[in-house]
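Changelog entry

Holo records now carry the ligand SMILES as an explicit input line rather than a separate metadata file. Below, a converted record for nicotinamide-adenine-dinucleotide, shown in the new format.
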Amino acid sequence: MTGRVDCVRVDLGPRSYEVRIGEGLLARAGEEIAPLLARPRVAVLTDETVAALHLPALRAGLGGIEVTALALPPGEATKGWAEFSRAVDWLLAAKVERRDIIVALGGGVIGDLAGFAAAVLRRGVRFVQIPTTLLAQVDSSVGGKTGINSVHGKNLIGAFHQPALVLADIAVLATLPARDFLSGYGEVVKYGLLGDEAFFAWLEAAGPALAAGDVAARQEAVRRSVAMKARIVERDETEAGDRALLNLGHTFCHALEKATGYSARLLHGEGVAIGCALAFELSQRLGLCSQEAPSRVRAHLRAMGMKVDLADIPGDLPGPEALLSFMAQDKKVVDGRLRFILARGIGEAFVADDVPGDAVMRLLADACAER
Ligand SMILES: NC(=O)c1ccc[n+]([C@@H]2O[C@H](COP(=O)([O-])OP(=O)(O)OC[C@H]3O[C@@H](n4cnc5c(N)ncnc54)[C@H](O)[C@@H]3O)[C@@H](O)[C@H]2O)c1
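Structure line, unchanged by the conversion:
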């Protein structure tokens, strides 16, 4: 263990758990996980890329605990029925029982798939998240949303199933390609923008060091992001209300992801960053926040070398009408009015249920015209 371990508790009554954040947690995974085990054995689901880089360290860290592991192909395409049913059958063949623990070692794809497998296997077994991307450490491993994609859309099949423990080892982020790291950073920025201006100001100062590999800065960013997500999930575990705040930038993002065919042209966190910039622009146009707020959002994203505008997405995009129709499919439209997360300033987001479609249309038309 090289440094301090931060601990964020997610308080959900009988489903409460801890998110432990620190450098070198893989190396001591055995002592972290052992208290949860009914017998010294875990089943690990991972992907081939992560398995090659980090499974040996996890095996070593688990010490005397027997490890059986399945590595699925990397990538979003894995998050569908085919690999899901393969994983569930493998878990059954491996004789995973009700009181056993499944370990998800990987990014959001593996976390979502393994969590859903744990939710349905033998009507529910416990699982431990070991997130290996920045996105998974700050977002997908916490909060219990699990699931897979359907031909009808992303994340349409799933369950709420909280992990029993989350181990976020900051050291594993060192092997993440820079583009994937910055994509995850889009979600980090989102937390500052939605509810904590001081955190956003801290990111403006610490962001470049964090991207360059500063472990202490990375740990602090993960800790503050997880703490914010934990507080929101505690207030609204199943997204009946406040949890929707976490969707800041996501309505735009989902339309852009659909427009780019969920391809490598636009990673999820890149879409979130562009979406946050658009949400602040829309808020300013609706007279909700000052002109300075969207400028500050854009300036930080630019300073980090991130995508900010539609023009930063390579290749053709459909026009504003098509983008708006993708949004309408994504969220409920009532009498031409859309549900968005808007902001009264940096750190002051709120759920707006009555956003006029024509204001969104004008925003998209201007954004497309700048391409
Ligand atoms: N459940 C939730 O609340 C929630 C929230 C946000 C996103 N998600 C989901 O998360 C998924 C995206 O997650 P992601 O961005 O982590 O994608 P991912 O799991 O596909 O990982 C991205 C890539 O990085 C590789 N990788 C992972 N860790 C690595 C490491 N340490 N070093 C080198 N390479 C590594 C993976 O093999 C993969 O190729 C989407 O399916 C999205 O729907 C879920």
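Spot-checked after migration. The CA atoms of residues 167 and 352 lie 35 Å apart. The two ends are 48 Å apart (CA to CA).
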